[in-house]
């Protein structure tokens, strides 16, 4: 596995070297450790002898250039190097076992689904001293807080719709009416945060309005949007939900010109991209907010940021949302929990605690691809929130992983097998067995440690 | 809330635990896992359920895995995975590894078994001749009695059992 990672890291290193070149010219060249020809040969021999048992006189042939068959020696060195640098697939009955073992591990527990596991509350109340306090808490949460909060939630929406309708009747100028609606929306969002018992701490670079900027954030729940609306109005790009959420999306949020799409309708994609760029070009609309993970993650991990938000002609403003799940898990497990059930959990908890950090604006660097840019921003966001960044495609929650990944692995396996076969033929079975004995045991080949 | 093991009675858990090499705790967590994987809530795992694990869907041996696990109910699922417990018998683990290769289930590993597995691992990237060559080499290296197939005892002799045990063990359930 280490070898694979090194190979993957190489292009990045090369790029850095290219960028840094002019700086290097100004400074003194670093003092290189000089090897004599003999040292080098000894070094190579030592490396080879780690994997192949060569007769001593043959080794001395390598070092001192004795009358040995040069081609044979070259072949041995080549094969030994192959053996050192490639993850070897043994051509014996071990063949399929690492891959199969990896599959078994993934069945028992896979790291993809870890990103979407809800936090289970630890029972703390089964104690004679704590139980009365707990029961009192239940009473307050379900019979005092919940009705008050539900009332705030419902009345704030009604108030918003009434004021907004009156406002539209009085205000003849369309643009001014929308601006007033946006102001109203900010009040509404803060009423909701109050209703959810939100204790939200905003920090970092204050968000601004204007064109050519797009806000990107990690995604835990639909509540993320409400939390961010509490700071400033944003238009959002997102999945169109069934009722009751559709009501909010189509009626309440109408003034923000949000972009809704259906994940299952793939042909929408180009259309959505155009609408996003159009929105970002305009200064008279609320700035756009995108959740590049494309799915709710449990706020302990981040999954792959899709490149869409990072190939726009706009500055990227990263935002980290880190929830504290001491009272309630903010993660909305959409597969198992309905929206109303989730909302009920939030409304009956003591508080929803969240740290919102607006990070420095980022631009794509010269030579950086949108995918690399997306990864860089993902790392920034993850680091601030103490989240573990993974490169899983969040859509795999809903769709099956593509066969192309298998094809890629099969290709690699075939190449390695061919090399092993060549090696085995050149050296004969006895030598190969010796190599196999020297080799440390083969590890399981789970994809978990791979960058897929 | 809490772990949803309500439909699994504690006597059942104990019974299943006794049958397998797993603790009651492992059974509970496997039950949660099973429920999560069984998207259709049919009580059995289908190949389609299993390949919704992205890492498994990216595994070249997935046809073999799903063939071994297709339509298993919870008890079969536990029995299947129980072998992977650190407490399971060494010989059971080797049996398990042997079963992976015995694709046609005739009790021995023959050339066509191996070729099926190899084909899954390399796809169309190697020629038939190359696969034949590899298959022949593997069999001739392990075949002690010269009958061109590998039986259970030849299998055990050919492999480093320590390695097999490590590969067929999952530490956390």
Automatic annotation (TrEMBL), chain A:
Key words of the record: Acyltransferase, Lipid biosynthesis, Lipid metabolism, Membrane, Phospholipid biosynthesis, Phospholipid metabolism, Transferase, Transmembrane, Transmembrane helix
Domain of life from the UniProt record: Eukaryota
A Pfam family: Acyltransferase
GO cellular component: endoplasmic reticulum; membrane
UniProt xrefs under InterPro entries: LPCAT1-like (IPR045252), Plipid/glycerol_acylTrfase (IPR002123)
Location(s) in or outside the cell: Membrane
Name by which UniProt lists this protein: Phospholipid/glycerol acyltransferase domain-containing protein
Organism for this UniProt entry: Rhodosorus marinus
Automatic annotation (TrEMBL), chain B:
Gene3D superfamilies for this protein: EF-hand (1.10.238.10)
Origin superkingdom: Eukaryota
Protein keywords: Calcium, Metal-binding, Repeat
EF-hand domain mapped to chain residues: 25-60, 89-124
Keyword check for Metal-binding: yes
GO MF terms, alphabetically ordered: calcium ion binding; hydrolase activity, hydrolyzing O-glycosyl compounds
UniProt record, GO biological process: polysaccharide catabolic process
PROSITE patterns according to UniProt: CLOS_CELLULOSOME_RPT, EF_HAND_1, EF_HAND_2
SMART domains (alphabetical): EFh (SM00054)
PANTHER family in alphabetical order: PROTEIN PHOSPATASE 3 REGULATORY SUBUNIT B ALPHA ISOFORM TYPE 1 (PTHR45942)
Protein name per Swiss-Prot or TrEMBL: EF-hand domain-containing protein
Source species taxonomy: Eukaryota, Rhodophyta, Stylonematophyceae, Stylonematales, Stylonemataceae
């Amino acid at each position: 596995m280490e070898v694979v990672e090194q190979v993957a890291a190489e292009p990045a290193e090369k790029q850095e070297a290219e960028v840094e070149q002019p700086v290097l010219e100004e400074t003194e060249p670093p003092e290189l450790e000089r090897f004599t020809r003999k040292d080098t040969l000894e070094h190579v021999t030592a490396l080879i002898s780690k994997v192949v048992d060569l007769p001593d006189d043959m080794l001395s042939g390598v070092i001192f250039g004795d009358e040995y068959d040069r081609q044979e020696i070259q072949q041995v060195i080549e094969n030994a190097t192959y053996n050192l640098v490639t993850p070897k697939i043994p051509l014996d009955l071990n063949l399929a076992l690492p891959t199969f073992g990896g599959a078994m591990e993934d069945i028992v527990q896979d790291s993809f689904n870890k990103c979407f596991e809800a936090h289970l509350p630890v029972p703390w109340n089964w104690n004679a001293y704590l139980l009365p306090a707990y029961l009192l808490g239940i009473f307050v949460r379900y019979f005092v807080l919940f009705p008050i909060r539900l009332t705030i939630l419902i009345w704030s929406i009604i108030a918003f719709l009434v004021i907004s309708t009156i406002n539209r009747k009085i205000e003849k100028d369309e643009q001014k009416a929308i601006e007033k609606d946006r102001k109203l929306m900010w009040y509404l969002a803060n009423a909701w945060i109050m209703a959810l018992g939100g204790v939200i701490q905003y920090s970092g670079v204050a968000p601004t309005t204007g064109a050519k900027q797009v806000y990107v954030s990690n995604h835990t729940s639909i509540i993320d949007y409400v939390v961010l609306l509490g700071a400033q109005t944003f238009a959002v790009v997102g999945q169109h939900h069934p009722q009751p959420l559709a009501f909010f999306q189509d009626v309440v949020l109408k003034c923000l010109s949000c972009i809704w799409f259906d994940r299952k309708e793939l042909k929408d994609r180009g259309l959505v991209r155009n609408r996003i760029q159009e929105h970002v070009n305009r200064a008279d609309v609320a700035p756009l907010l995108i959740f590049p993970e494309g799915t709710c993650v449990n706020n302990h991990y981040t999954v792959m940021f899709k490149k869409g938000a990072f190939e726009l002609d706009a500055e990227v403003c990263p935002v980290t949302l880190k929830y504290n799940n001491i009272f309630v898990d903010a993660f909305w497990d959409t597969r198992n929990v309905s929206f109303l059930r989730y909302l009920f959990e939030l409304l009956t908890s003591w508080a929803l605690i969240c740290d919102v950090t607006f990070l420095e604006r980022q631009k794509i660097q010269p030579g950086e691809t949108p995918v690399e840019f997306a990864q860089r921003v993902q790392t920034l966001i993850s680091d601030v929130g103490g989240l573990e960044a993974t490169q899983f495609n969040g859509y795999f929650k809903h769709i099956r992983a593509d066969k192309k990944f298998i094809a890629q692995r099969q290709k690699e396996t075939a190449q390695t097998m061919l090399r092993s076969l060549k090696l085995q033929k050149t050296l004969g079975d006895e030598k190969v067995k010796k190599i196999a004995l020297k080799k440390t045991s083969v590890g399981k080949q789970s994809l978990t440690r791979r960058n897929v | 809330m809490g772990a949803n093991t309500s439909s699994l009675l504690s006597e059942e858990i104990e019974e299943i635990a006794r049958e397998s090499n797993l603790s009651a705790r492992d059974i509970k967590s496997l039950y949660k896992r099973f429920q999560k994987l069984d998207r259709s809530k049919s009580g059995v795992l289908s190949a389609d359920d299993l390949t919704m694990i992205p890492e498994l869907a990216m595994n070249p041996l997935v046809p073999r895995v799903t063939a071994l696990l297709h339509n298993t109910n919870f008890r079969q699922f536990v029995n299947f995975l129980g072998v992977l417990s650190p407490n399971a018998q060494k010989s059971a683990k080797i049996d398990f590894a042997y079963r992976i290769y015995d694709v046609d289930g005739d009790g021995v590993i023959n050339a066509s078994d191996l070729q099926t597995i190899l084909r899954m691992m390399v796809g169309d990237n190697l020629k038939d001749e190359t696969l034949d060559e590899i298959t022949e080499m593997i069999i001739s290296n392990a075949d002690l009695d010269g009958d061109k197939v590998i039986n259970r005892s030849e299998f055990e002799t050919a492999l480093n059992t320590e390695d097999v045990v490590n590969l067929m063990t999952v530490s956390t359930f």
